[in-house]
């Protein structure tokens, strides 16, 4: 953690927060005693859900802010562990950890939305301004547009309420954790209100040497016309992070000679090095920035017809240099590794507008709950990394570099030796060359690395535009039968331009600049979903549904949006899902229990064909079962639980080039990467008295594989958490959280070939929450 300056900054921020709360809250909600209430009636926010969740024919999970608060959650990565069947991945040199969810075995990096608008920026996401998280599972192109093969995540922002309240939170904990939050809501008039959410967070990472997290955010919003026919809400969100990034530990691999595939490696995360940090503090950094402005407009045309419009402009950025504990030279068994840097500099600009017409009407004796809408979005991504000047490179290259003022540059000519770190002798005597290598035991993050970091000349610009139209309707034939329909048309265009240049070297300090041929695609596609619902009793629902999704080339968006000459010519991939399930409201509708079986299939995955050309001939499928129970068993007993069983299989992974010979892919018949067969999440708490609440949770994930060839195994794990809160009076409460009680050091974000990011170890925090 930073020293006195950081704590002084924290103290100033705390004073500012508390001062703002005191000035902004002159009255409190007399009816609010500070208790947290969770019910089974929480609904998803999107107007495209034209039926209550209990009658929606697909798997949808809503995680309310109350559950996140009880669990001591502060980030989206932590929040997603409450929903089984979701794992997290790592992209080498790419998006920040925690922003790459895999839903039902499918990478859903670009399927994260904020208030119904796709959030493509490469940035971690906080929860201080969230009302709830809506998770939809299975191919949902009709709902979400391009992608959405595994599902989608919609983050719902806090908005002003027609009341006066203010809440401040101060959390301190192990690993030098200090977190300050404030939520201020003020009535401006009978029909207008203002809300301000603020957060500052500094912490080390439990069980990891030298890793630091530092972030702050502010989210003001104002609503006008509350309770009238015309309502307008304007929201702004600013969020910054400045972290010491962590790529965890390398894999320990065993080399094997295969008669077909030649030299291959089997491995697992190395053991006994849970605390060891292999980065360099005077080189590594990760800085992100988000500025997002949103305007929501609602107008009731009639009692049963409402026009809604959401406009968004946002800019996000991610800049980082991070150490990959390199195992690619098979040097880990020798006790050494290369501090292989990975870097990225990405800025994303988003303009979007979504308009809906939502209502209900009886036509021909059938009640229709409908939503029709149009959508436009444009995402522009500028991807320009860094030259990291290490051994073997001159201190300056002669290019008109754009200096990075946030990076400390050591303008010292490094030695010409370029260590491979392939054996213990590479460490040698202390020298600048040594610091690019380190031993597995006791690495020193303060090693005086000699080099410089400057912005690269080459860049990649990607612009993606989407025009879409969609329509949804739930037809209620009677109290027992209904039909849920949805269709969406997308006109998708993506274009990629750039400038490339080889990395400067001692022999070629001024490599030629090359303008590559622009790439792009234009696609039109239609996705749809249909679901039949039967209610044998008022509290119960049986359903069967079918849905599709589409993956056009370059649909990754943001940091993952590039296409190649090979994929530019390919038609979009198509996915389909069939699902059958039951939903039942229990305990006077306080708790919603669900169960579903599903089958998802992709018949035209992009792979290399028998001629060596990239084609859409692959075949992948996943079958599964899911159970959830969310809400309250009694007014004092809350339950939020789920279990997922996934059987994934790569039916046809195409072909692999082995020494010039194309052979069937070794992934054939294997599980999807990062997809466990069993996953379980349970959170429950009980109010022992009007003042005392105790609870806890557990998470289980069975063995999974980091790679599609199933050669890097990630062990199964159990995690346990606990919570106790005590309400001192109507305004002041305390909450104690114990995270990862057994200090289980499991993998959260695996890379498919090089490293595994580990979960934080055991930690404790105490929060003081004050309502003014």
Short summary:
The chain is mainly beta and 772 residues long. The protein is built from 5 helices and 42 strands.
Strand and helix map with partners:
Blueprint lengths: L3 H21 L35 E5 H6 L5 H4 L6 E3 L12 E3 L2 E2 L4 E3 L2 E2 L11 E8 L3 H4 L6 E7 L7 E9 L3 E13 L2 E13 L7 E13 L5 E14 L5 E10 L3 E8 L15 E18 L2 E22 L9 E28 L2 E18 L2 E4 L47 E3 L12 E4 L3 E18 L4 E21 L11 E2 L4 E16 L5 E12 L13 H4 L4 E14 L4 E18 L5 E21 L2 E16 L2 E4 L2 E4 L13 E10 L4 E10 L2 E2 L7 E2 L2 E11 L4 E8 L7 E4 L4 E4 L4 E9 L1
Parallel strand pairs: 5-8
Antiparallel strand pairs: 1-7, 2-3, 3-4, 5-6, 7-8, 9-10, 9-42, 10-11, 11-12, 12-13, 13-16, 14-15, 14-41, 16-17, 17-18, 18-19, 18-21, 19-23, 20-22, 23-24, 24-25, 24-26, 26-27, 27-28, 28-29, 29-30, 30-31, 31-34, 32-33, 34-35, 35-38, 36-37, 38-39, 39-42, 40-41
């Amino acid at each position: 953690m930073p020293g006195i300056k950081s704590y002084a900054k924290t103290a100033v921020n705390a004073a500012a927060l508390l001062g703002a709360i005191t000035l902004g809250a002159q009255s409190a909600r007399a009816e609010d005693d500070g208790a947290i209430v969770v019910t089974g009636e929480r609904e998803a926010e999107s107007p495209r859900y034209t039926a209550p969740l209990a009658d929606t024919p697909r798997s949808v999970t809503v995680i309310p802010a109350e559950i996140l608060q009880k669990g001591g959650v502060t980030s989206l990565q932590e929040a997603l562990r409450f929903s089984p069947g979701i794992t997290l991945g790592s992209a080498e040199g790419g998006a920040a950890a925690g922003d790459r969810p895999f839903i039902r075995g499918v990478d859903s990096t670009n399927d994260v939305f904020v208030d119904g608008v796709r959030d493509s920026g490469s940035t971690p996401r906080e929860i201080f301004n969230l009302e709830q998280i809506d998770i939809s599972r299975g191919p949902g192109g009709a709902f979400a547009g391009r992608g959405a093969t595994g599902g989608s995540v919609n983050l719902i922002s806090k908005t002003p309420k027609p009341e006066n309240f203010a809440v401040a939170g101060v959390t301190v904990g192990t690993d030098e954790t200090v977190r300050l939050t404030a939520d201020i809501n003020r009535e401006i008039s009978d029909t207008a209100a203002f809300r301000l959410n603020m957060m500052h967070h500094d912490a080390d990472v439990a069980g990891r040497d030298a890793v630091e997290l530092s972030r702050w955010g502010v989210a003001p919003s104002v609503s006008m016309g509350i309770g009238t026919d015309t309502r307008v809400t304007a929201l702004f969100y600013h969020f910054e992070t400045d972290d010491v990034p962590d790529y965890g530990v390398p894999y320990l691999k065993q080399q094997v000679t295969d008669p077909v595939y030649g030299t291959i490696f089997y491995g697992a995360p190395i053991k006994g090095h849970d605390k060891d940090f292999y980065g360099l503090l005077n080189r590594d950094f990760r800085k992100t920035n988000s500025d997002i402005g949103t305007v929501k407009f609602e107008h009731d045309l009639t009692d049963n017809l409402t026009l809604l419009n959401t406009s968004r402009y946002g800019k996000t950025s991610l800049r980082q240099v991070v150490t990959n504990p390199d195992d690619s030279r098979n040097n880990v068994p020798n006790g050494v590794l290369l501090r292989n840097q990975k870097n990225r500099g990405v800025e994303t600009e988003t303009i979007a507008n979504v308009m809906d017409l939502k209502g209900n009407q009886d036509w021909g004796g059938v009640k229709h709950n409908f939503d029709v809408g149009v959508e436009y979005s444009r995402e522009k991504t500028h991807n320009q990394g860094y030259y990291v000047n290490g051994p073997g490179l001159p201190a300056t290259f002669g290019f008109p570099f754009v200096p990075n003022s946030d990076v400390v540059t050591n303008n010292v000519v490094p030695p010409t030796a370029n260590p491979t770190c392939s054996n213990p002798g590479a460490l040698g005597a202390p020298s600048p060359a040594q610091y690019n290598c380190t031993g597995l035991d006791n690495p020193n993050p303060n090693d005086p690395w000699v080099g410089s970091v400057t912005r690269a000349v080459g860049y990649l610009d990607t612009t993606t535009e989407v025009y879409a139209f969609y329509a949804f309707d739930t037809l209620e034939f009677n109290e027992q039968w209904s039909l849920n329909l949805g269709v969406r048309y997308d006109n998708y265009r993506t274009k990629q331009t750039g400038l490339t240049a080889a990395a400067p070297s001692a022999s070629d300090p001024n490599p030629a600049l090359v303008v590559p041929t622009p790439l792009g695609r234009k696609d039109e596609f239609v996705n749809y979903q249909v679901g039949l619902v039967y209610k044998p009793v008022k509290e119960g629902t049986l359903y069967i549904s079918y849905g599709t999704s589409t993956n056009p080339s370059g649909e990754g968006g943001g940091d993952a949006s590039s296409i190649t000459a090979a994929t530019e010519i390919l038609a979009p991939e198509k996915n389909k899902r069939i699902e059958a399930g039951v939903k039942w409201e229990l305990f006077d509708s306080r708790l919603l229990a669900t169960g579903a079986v599903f089958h998802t299939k992709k018949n035209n995955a992009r792979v290399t064909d028998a001629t060596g050309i990239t084609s859409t001939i692959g075949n992948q499928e996943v079958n599964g079962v899911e159970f959830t129970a969310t809400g309250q068993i009694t007014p004092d007993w809350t339950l939020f639980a789920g279990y997922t069983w996934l059987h994934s299989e790569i039916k046809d992974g195409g072909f692999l080039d082995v020494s010039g010979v194309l052979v069937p892919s070794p992934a054939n018949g294997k599980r999807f990467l990062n997809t466990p067969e069993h996953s379980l999440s349970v959170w429950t708490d009980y109010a022992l008295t009007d003042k005392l609440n105790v609870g806890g949770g557990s998470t289980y994930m069975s063995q999974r594989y980091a790679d599609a060839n199933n050669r890097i195994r990630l062990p199964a794990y159990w995690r346990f958490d606990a919570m106790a809160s005590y309400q001192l009076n109507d305004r002041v409460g305390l909450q104690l959280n114990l995270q990862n009680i057994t200090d289980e050091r499991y993998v959260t974000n695996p890379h498919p070939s090089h490293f595994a990011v580990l979960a934080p170890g055991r930690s404790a925090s105490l929060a003081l929450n004050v309502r003014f």
